[in-house]
From TrEMBL:
Source organism superkingdom: Bacteria
Keyword set, alphabetical order: Membrane, Transmembrane, Transmembrane helix
Entry annotated with the keyword Transmembrane: yes
Full protein name: Uncharacterized protein
Length: 72
């Protein structure tokens, strides 16, 4: 046996145990992503939710703008 193998065999192995079982990290990540997905889903169609308040007010797309190509 080589000297390095003897040292490795006699050295103590330090094991740092996790505070929770390893699969629980995945469970926590799944819960966080589901929570963020629900928050994102609540903002679905917010722009159209209050369309009755704007009524027939003109939008940025309805204004007549001068044709910039004719000035060249």
């Amino acid at each position: 046996m080589s000297f390095a193998a003897i040292l490795m065999a006699e050295s103590e192995h330090v094991v740092n145990e996790l505070p929770i079982p390893s699969f629980m990290f995945g469970v926590f990540a799944l819960i966080v992503f589901l929570f963020l997905g629900v928050i994102t889903f609540t903002y679905r169609d917010v722009a159209n939710r209050h369309s009755h308040k704007t009524g027939s007010a003109p939008t940025a797309h309805t204004y007549d703008t001068p044709d910039t190509d004719s000035q060249h």
